[in-house]
Amino acid sequence: MKKYTNAFIKEMPKTDLHLHLDGSMRIPTLIEMAQKNNVKLPSYTEEGLRELVFKESYANLGEYLHGFQYTCSVLRDLENIERASYELAVDNQNENVYYIEARFAPQLLMDLQSGLTMESILEASYKGFERAKKEFNNSAEVKNGSRPEFHYGIISCAMRKFGPKGYSPFYTNFFKTMEYSKEMEVLKEGALQMVKAAVKIRDEKGIPIVSIDLAGQEEGYPPGKFKEVYNYAHKNFMHKTVHAGEAYGAESIFQAITDCYADRIGHGYYLFDENKIVDASITDKKKYISNLISFVADKRTTIEVCLTSNLQTNPEIKDIKNHNLKHMLDNRMSLTICTDNRLVSNTTVSDEFQLAVDNFDIQYKHLKDIVAYGFKKSFYPGQYIEKRNYAKKCMMHFDEIAKKHGVI
Ligand SMILES: [Zn+2]
């Protein structure tokens, strides 16, 4: 017998702290935008795109990332960025996800010839989220206290390699003056420009850019290479998250925390795998892993767990029951359940929670802890006291919903 019904999972208040805007668009919107902007798609029907691009399962990470070229192409348009942001917030509100942090790399969408600057891109996204927030928070249900308010933050991503042909006009301009062999310097320079612009826009315009992230191909591009970028964010009171341990090992997670001051880790999947360690100086791998697990758990560095996405990009996991979520729970780590990409992974926050509770032994107290971490470990764009009060209200609502569904 199921401990938690679909209705309860859907109605309980939730967060999504690891959510890519460009991987989470609605398919009909993508098709409409592609037609408007003359972007070529392999199919112009939902079924066709599901069959050819946004699949149930993927052969590898490369195939998983393939669809981003289409979403990024249509998002090189301010009106489309605003609409995609608005719709993403509404889709979350509709499944009682009250707090989201949406991430994307403005560098991938920039095109100075078309007037697409870092600033105008981040501002367009802000307008879309802000409109959705205001509409929701002015609804009768929020006004009469029967649902919590909706809030959001924007995470701006630094990029590692994302395919030699996939460079956006922003990076192509760099390559005109720099050798391709100096790729790492190009990526770092792009990331530095991004973080400086993000801090400036946040401070001058009050746009809630709450954190930076590092996304793209992990292997060969360890977080430590972006130390300077993270240091700039750190010294400007900006939060930090890093995709680490998604495709390679524990030392990537260690660098994210020690070199990049990461408050949270995206995926962290290979934290537990001795075989993924490549650093030859780590001789006692078992000890290193156990020390690192304890270090991450003790610091309460929060792991952004994306179950479906991990299964899709690491087909060797094969079965959800083999997912390292079990070890994360056993080691009492701070974790939060996220979607990664609603479109590319064909999922929702409710689906991800359902997968977790159906396949792992998660007692009520732990489920409540996981939900609470989403609110408490968020990079809420306000003062700590405000975040605390908001998290408290959302968790009181959680208790009410649990009572209503007979879970407690
Ligand atoms: Zn991600």
Q: Would you mind describing this structure in some detail?
A:
This protein has an 8-stranded parallel sheet with strand order 1-2-3-4-5-6-7-8. The chain is built from 19 helices and 8 strands. The chain has 408 residues and is of the alpha/beta class. The protein has a single domain (6-404), classed as Metal-dependent hydrolases (TIM Barrel, Alpha-Beta Barrel), CATH 3.20.20.140. The radius of gyration is 20 Å and the shape is globular. The model has no long low-confidence stretch (mean pLDDT 94). The two termini are 16 Å apart. The structure holds zinc ion. Zinc ion binds next to strand 1.
Helix count, per DSSP?
Answer: 19
From N to C, what is the helix and strand string? Answer: HEHHHHHEHHHEHHEHEHEHEHHEHHH
In CATH terms, what is the architecture?
Answer: Alpha-Beta Barrel
The computed structural class is: alpha/beta
